[in-house]
Amino acid sequence: MTVRIGVIGAGWIGREHIRRLTGTVTGTRVTAVTDIDRSRAAEAAAPVGARVAADGAELIASDDVDAVLVTSWGPTHAEHVLNAITAGKPVFCEKPLATTVEDCLRITEAETANGRRLVQVGFMRRYDAGYRQMKQVIDSGAIGEPLVVHCAHRNPTVPESYTSDMAALDTAVHEVDVLRWLLDDEIVSAQVVTPRSTRKRFAHLRDPQIMLFETAKGVRIDLEVFVNCQYGYDIQCETVGEEGLVRLPDPASPAVRTAAAHSTRVPTDWVGRFADAFDTEFREWVARVAAGAEPTGPSAWDGYAATAITRATVTSLQEDRTVATDIRPRPAFYGGAA
Ligand code: NAD
Ligand code: ISE
């Protein structure tokens, strides 16, 4: 079966995923594209033979769309995801699931009422080979119980439109999701401390920020978010346990020795750093959709937890205090005991 996909949002990642779904992942066809900027939708649709849909609602309802991919701006995600649930169609939503906790809960409630999982959230790090290897090591017990995690999330630069709260909502949200999964644990509090800011930033931005999280089992996490680091796109993660530690491998790149120096490349953006993870993420999602099965990737509940935790992180930045995340007990529908 060929899965016919409708794409809402033809910006940077929307175009990346259209390319991926037509050129890399087998068993799919992009049949419809929509964007509030119609010319952008037309540019993305033409090369893959898709039609331009009038808007998200029309695309979701139409007979030529089996499954929906939401890659529009974050504040618009909830509306499209809720429409897809109402239509009974599988929906893959790029992070964040929604920008408010209330909208995330509306989505989990709608999905629960629907009776089967339809939503997957685009937290692609769970599909990265290095993170998967780290998880195997932690789950095997080889390093003992995890105690501390040290992370860094660095982007070379960000545009002027990037604001201080985006360090949590847009950037750290990836660590928040992958660490909950890696540790099989919940984040219960968040705190932000700010060193002096780099001069290589727009004046309104606090950058870097150091985020400190505590989990229900008592693991402490420190995360440096530095989005104007200049030198590359650099993702680091090290988990320290009672009997050893495990470190996320850097992506493989040739080791070059020349002019009395030894060097390996650092990626320059998320597109290259996580290309394989995105491919795997979509292969696995499409296989489930084609089989008529529920998705196995990050759920609407994970999307809710990530938004609640990053919102608490923003509150900490604004109010200079440690903030409880107040995550609700996980319902049985999402694999919990509640
Ligand atoms: P972008 O600004 O390049 O593209 C967003 C597009 O959505 C724009 O073309 C805009 O016109 C369109 N749009 C806005 N509202 C719409 C609506 N109601 N209906 C249809 N189209 C609408 O942004 P981007 O970088 O492509 O990011 C899009 C989403 O993907 C964001 O949620 C972002 O957080 C996420 N993202 C994820 C990753 C990742 O690593 N997983 C990386 C980048 C972006
Ligand atoms: C962007 O939206 C992403 O999701 C990238 O993975 C992240 O590194 C970047 O900071 C975000 O702005």
Automatic annotation (TrEMBL):
Top-level taxon: Bacteria
GO biological process: one example: inositol catabolic process
What's its catalytic activity? myo-inositol + NAD(+) = scyllo-inosose + NADH + H(+)
Tell me the InterPro entries matching this sequence.
Answer: Gfo-Idh-MocA_inositol_DH (IPR050424), Gfo/Idh/MocA-like_OxRdtase_C (IPR004104), Gfo/Idh/MocA-like_OxRdtase_N (IPR000683), MI/DCI_dehydrogenase (IPR023794), NAD(P)-bd_dom_sf (IPR036291)
Query: Which intervals hold domain Gfo/Idh/MocA-like oxidoreductase N-terminal?
Result: 3-123
Q: Which keywords annotate this record?
A: NAD, Oxidoreductase
EC code: 1.1.1.18
Presence of the UniProt keyword Magnesium in the record: no
Q: Which residues form the Gfo/Idh/MocA-like oxidoreductase C-terminal domain?
A: 135-324
Q: Which GO terms describe its molecular function?
A: inositol 2-dehydrogenase (NAD+) activity; nucleotide binding
Keyword Translocase attached: no
Q: How does it assemble?
A: Homotetramer.
Protein family membership: Belongs to the Gfo/Idh/MocA family.
Q: What does this protein do?
A: Involved in the oxidation of myo-inositol (MI) to 2-keto-myo-inositol (2KMI or 2-inosose).
Name of the protein in question: Inositol 2-dehydrogenase
